[in-house]
Amino acid sequence: MYFGASSSLNTCSSVSAVALRSKRAIFLGSFSDSIITAPIQIDILFKLALPLDTMSKEIVLIGRSNVGKSTLFWELTGTKVRIGKRPGITQYPFKTKVGNVFYVDMPGYGFMFKTTKAEQEKTKDLIVHYFESRAEEILLTVQVIDAASFLDIADRWEGRGEVPFEIELWEFLNDMGLDVVLAANKMDRIAKVDLDGALDLICERLGMLPPWNQWPDKIAPISAKRGQIEPLRTIISKRVSVNHPD
Ligand code: GDP
Fold it and tell me: Is the dihedral of CA 21, 206, 151, 71 positive or negative?
């Protein structure tokens, strides 16, 4: 079974093309009334967006809208993500090089004001296609969540009988064999006394056994707005130094 398979976490073995195709189908298929964009359009977008050094490794940031992904991207790279008047995918994936590594900002998925269902589906298709086509180049995937609202949102989705998108995405990325870390952002919005409890619950929801602090390589509690992102920097440094030893 694909969903809820906690044992799939930390699987780093490569998966067959057939298995990946079926994961892709499940992932995309979970969005009802999906309008699947023609692959050719997505390919053109990639060619326009990714003309640079394709041999360099990438650190990819992904998360739903408003979790603080752009703020984190700025903290990590010193580069502002280009933001148009209206969120769309034409400017994505946005890339910038820091040292030997490209940082890639994926479009924020979610239910943004004025975003049509078709645009949302396009975004999801782009995300899946990106991870499938560039898995070899991706050194680390950083899934950013708003730790302060994650549990409420997950409860709401589950209350409607749906698998919360962020949980589904986490499983999709891990099952692809990617190295994924959870950046639990906006920790400053959680009372100190509740920090451990909240992180334990998030951990559990994602199929990892609490306590959260036994997963120092998978969970990084941060506050991007306050520049408190040390746990994530530590994880990134480790991955980069393994790949690009001096
Ligand atoms: P994105 O849509 O995921 O790119 O989110 P943004 O980076 O644009 O941030 C969305 C909102 O969250 C903005 O108002 C940010 O100032 C705020 N924000 C980002 N990081 C943090 C954080 O660590 N703590 C708090 N309290 N707010 C944050």
Answer: negative
Sheet containing strand 180-185, strands side by side: 94-98, 101-105, 57-63, 138-146, 180-185, 219-221
pLDDT of residue 153: 86
What atom of ligand 1 comes closest to residue 222's alpha carbon? Answer: 23
Residue 144 CA: nearest ligand 1 atom is 3
- The pTM for the full model equals 0.79
Closest residue by Cα to atom 16, ligand 1, is 225
Ligand 1 atom 24: the closest Cα is on which residue?
186
pLDDT in tens, 14-28: 334 444 555 555 555
> Omega into 216 within 30° of 0, i.e. cis?
no
Strand 101-105 relative to strand 57-63: parallel, antiparallel, unpaired?
parallel
